[in-house]
C-alpha cells in the first residue's frame, strides 16, 4: 500500500468526520471542558458499599463528555465517579481540533492517568480505584497497570487498581484503525505510519495490530496479578477488528471475564462508537463493578 493512498484516505476521513470547520446550524460541540453529570465531585466520600472510586477513560478522539450517560448512572448507584481528558497533542491535524483528545503517545497518556488517579485517591482517601475504559482507554489503562504504577506485580496487595472494565478496547490492536480502511502490520512503521500519525495522531499508529507499542505492552501476558478484568465486546465492532481481538487471557493471580454484548442480550445492536452510551453496556459495567448488582441488562431502549 502506498503511503500517498493512506494519506488521501485519512484526509477523506478527516473531512467525513466534519472537522474542516463549523457547519451551519451545527449542534453545540461537546468539547470536554465540563465534567459529565455526577462526575468529579472532589468532596465525594466513598461508601462502605462502594469503597473504590471509579475513573472513566475515554477513547481515541474522544473526551470526558463520552461518559454523559454512564457517569450519572454510576453516581445514582452511590459511586464516587471521576473522568478526565487525556492525550491532547497538537502535532496532528485532529489533535489540533477543539475537544479532540486521545491522539498523543499512549505511554504519556498513561502517566496522565496515573497522575489523575493519584489526585482521586488523595481527595477521597481511597486506597484503590476501579477503571472503566472505552477503546484506546483500555490500552491506556493497561499501560498504566504495567508500566506507570497502577499495579505491583511483585506484591499484588499493593495494586492501586482492583478492577478494569473495558468496552471495545484495542487490546491487541486493530486492522481497521481508519474506521473501515484496512491496515496490515507493516502499516505500523515507515511512511504509512507517518501519514496516519500526521492526521490522526500517534496513538492511531500505536493501535495498529503488530505495532511496536502493543508488542511491548502484551509481552509477558495480557494481565497483571491481583486485578479483575471484565472485557466487553460487540460483534458489530468495525473499529476494534476483528472484534474478538479485544479479549484477554488471564495470567497468574488475575481474573478475566470476556463478554459478548450479543450473548448477554441476543440481537443487541451496539456499535463501537455507541458503547459508552449503550444502556446494555452500562448495565454490564454496573454488574462488573458490583457482582451483587441485579439491574436488568436487556430490554432497554
TrEMBL record:
It comes from the Bacteria. SUPFAM superfamilies: alpha/beta-Hydrolases (SSF53474). InterPro entries: AB_hydrolase_fold, Lipase_EstA/Esterase_EstB. One of its GO terms (biological process) is lipid catabolic process. The keyword Signal applies. Residues 1-26 form the signal peptide. Keywords: Signal. Pfam families: Lipase_2. The keyword Signal applies. GO terms for molecular function: lipase activity. This is Lipase. It comes from Nocardia macrotermitis.
Amino acid at each position: 500500500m502506498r503511503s500517498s493512498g493512506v494519506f488521501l484516505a485519512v484526509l477523506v476521513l478527516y473531512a467525513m468526520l466534519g472537522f474542516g470547520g463549523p457547519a451551519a446550524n451545527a449542534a453545540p460541540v461537546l468539547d470536554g471542558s465540563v465534567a459529565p453529570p455526577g462526575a468529579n465531585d472532589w468532596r465525594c466520600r466513598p461508601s462502605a458499599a462502594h469503597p473504590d472510586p471509579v475513573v472513566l477513560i475515554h477513547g481515541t478522539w474522544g473526551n470526558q463528555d463520552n461518559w454523559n450517560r454512564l457517569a450519572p448512572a454510576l453516581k445514582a448507584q452511590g459511586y464516587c465517579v471521576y473522568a478526565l481528558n487525556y492525550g491532547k497533542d497538537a502535532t496532528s491535524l485532529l489533535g489540533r481540533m477543539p475537544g479532540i483528545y486521545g491522539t498523543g503517545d499512549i505511554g504519556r497518556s498513561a502517566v496522565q492517568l496515573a497522575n489523575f488517579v493519584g489526585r482521586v485517591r488523595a481527595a477521597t482517601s481511597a486506597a484503590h480505584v476501579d477503571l472503566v475504559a472505552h477503546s484506546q482507554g483500555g490500552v491506556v489503562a493497561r499501560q498504566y497497570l504495567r508500566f506507570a504504577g497502577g499495579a505491583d506485580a511483585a506484591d499484588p496487595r499493593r495494586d492501586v487498581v482492583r478492577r478494569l472494565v473495558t468496552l471495545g478496547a484495542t487490546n491487541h490492536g486493530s486492522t481497521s484503525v481508519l474506521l473501515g480502511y484496512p491496515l496490515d502490520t507493516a502499516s505500523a512503521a515507515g511512511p504509512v505510519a507517518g501519514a496516519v500519525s500526521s492526521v490522526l495522531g500517534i496513538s492511531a499508529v500505536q493501535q495498529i495490530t503488530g505495532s511496536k507499542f502493543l508488542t511491548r505492552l502484551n509481552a509477558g501476558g495480557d494481565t497483571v496479578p491481583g486485578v479483575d478484568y471484565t472485557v466487553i465486546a460487540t460483534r458489530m465492532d468495525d473499529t476494534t477488528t476483528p472484534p474478538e481481538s479485544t479479549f484477554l487471557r488471564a495470567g497468574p493471580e488475575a481474573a478475566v471475564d470476556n463478554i459478548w454484548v450479543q450473548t448477554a442480550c441476543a440481537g443487541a445492536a451496539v456499535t463501537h462508537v455507541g458503547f459508552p452510551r449503550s444502556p446494555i453496556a452500562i448495565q454490564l459495567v454496573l454488574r462488573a463493578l458490583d457482582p451483587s448488582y441485579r439491574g436488568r441488562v436487556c430490554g432497554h431502549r
